[in-house]
Amino acid sequence: MSVVAGDLRAWIALLREHGELAEVTAEVDPHLEITEIADRVMKAGGPALYFTSVRGSRLPLLINQFGTERRMCLALGVDELEDVRRRVQDVFELLAPPKGFAEMIGAAGTGLRTLRDSKPKIVASGPCQEVVMAEPDLDLLPIMTCWPDDGGPFITLPSVITRDPVSGGRNVGMYRLQKQSRTTLGLHWQIHKDAAADWREGAGRMEVAVALGTDPITAYAGSLPLPRHIDELAVAGVLRGDRVELVKAKTVDLEVPANAEIVIEGYCERGELAPEGPFGDHTGYYTPVEPFPVLHVTAITHRRDPIYPSIVVGVPPSEDVWLGKATERMFLPAVQMTMPEVVDYDLPFAGAFHNCCIVAIRKAFPGHARKVMHAVWGTGLLSLTKAVVVVDDWVDVHDYEQVIWQVGANVDPMRDVLLSQGPLDQLDHAPSLQSLGGKLGIDATAKWASEGYPRTWPEVARMSDAVRTRVSERWGELGLAMPPTAGGDGRRRGGLLRRRRT
Q1: Active-site residue numbers?
Q2: Is the pTM of this model over 0.85?
Q3: What is the distance between the alpha carbons of residues 133 and 250, in angstroms, rounded to a whole number?
């Protein structure tokens, strides 16, 4: 699979071609009703939904476009999510010392487009500016109220574009926006996010642009936890195999994706905050009302017949599961740059990704598992991880039954549990202090004498290769329907990601 959609319309056509789109012509209400419909369909592994009649708006609405692993792969133009990792592996060499950004940006890739080749291209005009509203009016958009106790309607699938006040670099983030009036939005960027840093480090007015309804890769790029010096739109260019085209915004000094369906332009006055929330978030719980910046809308531009994109988050699994899983796979090379002993890792979606990290390592010295725990807690946004489970290299981190087997069999809580403290996700309601709390490390690796284990560590009860081969060869004559797969020897393959594929 190698086709990637150039814009949202091409993406919708691709979904339809692959039988991954259901068009709903009955009128639906963006207040709660669409959420209930989309949540049922997503949790059943159903198609993307294209609502053509949304109460209170003339715009159609697309939702659940990323709701299965198959559609996430289709969006990225790959056969499986592991292919994404291979596509961007050279890009993440930017993170590897001693090479710096300037050196790597000019280096030739090994069969991949470099970030230099994939930098966005400025064009004179684009479909996103076919119509410029005489008076910007957010009431014309079918902005959803997702959950009963939400503080109002929220834009949930935006590309929020800001500029670093120090370096001038661009940041693109997927930050929710609460509609407060026809011309104002509440901007929720958490304390650890790059746009929040842009907000803190500047002075006076901060310009913002919000792109809605781009091609799926450009939309997805805004969710990537990239270092501040790497442009999300350049990485989108690598994933697309084609540069993202940008046009100058009408009322702010920013560039916006030319292929977007809708663009909201505006500014925030530093120091001006307003209550934002509650919001039923990806943790499955409501996040409380807190003060966040106010976006004053100065312009809304759009295509002649724009399509509004949305996403529902809530009790996992929700549609954002596959955005997160794609990012997990993509960032394995970056994790291995700083921790080369890591064979693989998994961020369980039931743990809202940031609550748990399972890591398989090639253990090389006493205390190696604890070294990895501390390294995870010191790496980018993985630093927000609440619990780290470390297993040996042969364990399939995506097979949670196998991981729990190792935790139950190998862990002595008096010896193998590490308690620490550090930063936590701002959305985590568990700690007594917001964004700061306890960390849990579990060493589920086999223990060595050099780690103070006085007995002989047992071997896993595995069948010999000779017998396994012989039984596989004889399977046809046994008259059994069961496939000739490996038995209970601890080497089962095909973890949760593969079992959940639809």
Answers
A1: 281
A2: yes
A3: 11
